[in-house]
Specification:
443 residues; alpha/beta; Four Helix Bundle (Hemerythrin (Met), subunit A); Rossmann fold; 3 domains; binds guanosine-5'-diphosphate; P-loop_NTPase; AAA+_ATPase; hydrolase; cytoplasm
Length: 443
């Protein structure tokens, strides 16, 4: 889960603060010491940490002004604000060209996830109504053209290539002309990578930039490489004037240092984050929501957006009504499970729910999506009446359901209990959704 180590440490620190009615200077000093250690431990650039702590200390001095928050809440709010501004403050979007097509050039080292991200971005932007054309400009690795074609095929997005004997700037120019002719309003160029930054690569990328004048030059970096990712970003930016960074593999066991340092070190905003290998695992990067996640306030807004992107709206409306009226049944439960499965790995989703991200054991929790198969089997073995009246399912019915679904009575019991808890949790989520919309900054 994103930043799990850092999040855990910061949340422990703040828990200690929360227990105190008044904060002495010593308390604040101690907390800041712990914050510093947590950030360094998360591989955040040393100078960035130093600056960060100094800013918080400065703001924490005149603290008892805001009447509505306790001193501890104020320190947390300051850390939240500063984390947000460290990561860029506000969300940075793709700059669309005044007259289409918008040209986005993807650059990065081998293995960072450039080709995958190229396809993910096409998918992401298509959901916003764009008509993308992908362009294969990595002519050195024969498999690269094929890889892009396969990904484009999966998405049903056209892929332009001219084989491996035309110079990349010429391929890029021809692609932009084709897009203009054929009404593609977004051109995403996949370029060559290298194991390390070298002069030849930089010259070639520079030539593409000169030829097509891209609206965006996005650097794809692997967040698992920590400070290396930040150094790579610095060098690329010096040569190519990047417009943004995409951090990939944030779903992995990354300590988070790259995400927290890139903007401060390079001045380039993070525009997107890769949260998995699948083609829908690209998220807009919202600094404030990431700060929410790090501080264990969950990220209800991303969760709600994910739900909106994946859920069938009509079903959501129906489901909402049923939850509100507490008519939510096991039939709805199965339907909802199927929808949730589409949203991505369960542990990622849980991490976005306020409070749950900070549950210590969550990062070790391996939620096996296959378990859901048994859940469905159990529910399918119930009669329609039972599904509508789960509280009435007695012992003999439970035995019959277990037999029918190839499970045990204990498993049936567990499911019914989970269902009850889910009903409760859904009611709480509805409340939180309401207050998230009202003003989520209330800490
Ligand atoms: P390229 O050499 O930069 O073009 O890298 P690729 O696009 O071929 O990706 C390298 C590997 O990283 C592939 O196995 C991808 O599936 C994987 N990958 C890319 N983005 C992500 C991500 O956000 N999360 C995870 N877990 N894997 C990713």
């Amino acid at each position: 889960m994103v930043f799990s180590g850092l999040a855990e440490k910061l949340q422990e620190t703040f828990k200690k603060l929360r227990g105190k009615g008044r904060l002495t200077e010593e308390d604040v000093d101690q907390a800041l010491k712990e914050v510093r250690r947590a950030l360094i431990g998360a591989d955040v650039n040393f100078l960035v940490v130093k600056d960060f702590i100094a800013r918080i200390r400065e703001r924490a001095v005149g603290i008892d002004v805001l009447q509505s928050l306790t001193p501890a809440q104020q320190v947390i709010k300051i850390v939240h604000d500063e984390l947000t501004s460290l990561m860029g403050g506000t969300r940075s979007k793709i700059e669309l060209a005044p007259s289409p097509p918008t040209v986005v050039m993807m650059v990065g080292l081998h293995g960072a996830g450039k080709t995958t991200t190229t396809a993910k971005l096409a998918n992401h932007m298509r959901r916003q109504g764009r008509r993308p054309l992908l362009v294969a400009c990595d002519i050195y690795r024969p498999a690269a053209i094929k890889q892009l074609q396969v990904l484009g095929g999966q998405l049903d997005v056209p892929v332009f290539n001219m084989g491996d004997s035309v110079a990349p700037p010429d391929i890029a120019r021809a692609a932009v002309e084709k897009a203009r002719r054929e009404g593609n309003d977004l051109v995403i160029i996949d370029t060559a990578g290298r194991l390390h930054i070298d002069e030849e690569l930089m010259t070639e990328l520079h030539n593409i930039v000169e030829t097509v004048g891209p609206n965006e030059i996005l650097l794809v970096v692997d967040s698992m490489t920590g400070q290396d990712a930040v150094n790579v970003a610095k060098t690329f930016n010096e040569r190519l004037s990047l417009t943004g960074v995409v951090l990939t593999k944030l779903d992995g066991d990354t300590r988070g240092g790259a995400a927290l340092s890139v903007k401060a070190v390079t001045g380039c905003p993070i525009k997107f984050v890769g949260m998995g290998e699948k083609l829908d695992a690209l998220e807009d990067f919202h600094p404030d929501r990431m700060a929410d996640r790090i501080l264990g306030m969950g990220d209800m807004l991303t969760l709600i957006e994910k739900a909106q992107a994946n859920f069938d709206q009509e079903q959501v409306e129906k489901l909402n009504k049923r939850i509100r009226s507490m008519e939510f049944t096991l039939d709805d439960f199965v339907q909802q499970l199927n929808q949730v499965k589409k949203m991505g790995p369960i542990d990622q989703i849980l991490g976005m729910i306020p409070g749950l991200g900070g549950v210590k054991k969550l990062k070790d929790l391996e939620v096996d999506d296959k378990d859901l198969v048994f859940v469905e089997a159990i529910i399918n073995s119930m009669t329609p009446w039972e599904r509508q009246h789960p509280q009435e399912i007695n012992g003999s019915r439970r035995r019959r359901i277990a037999r029918g679904s190839g499970t045990s009575v204990q498993e049936v019991n567990r499911l019914l209990k989970q269902f009850e808890q889910t009903r409760k949790m859904m009611r709480q989520l509805m409340e939180m959704e309401k207050s998230a919309k009202k003003g989520k900054k209330g800490l």
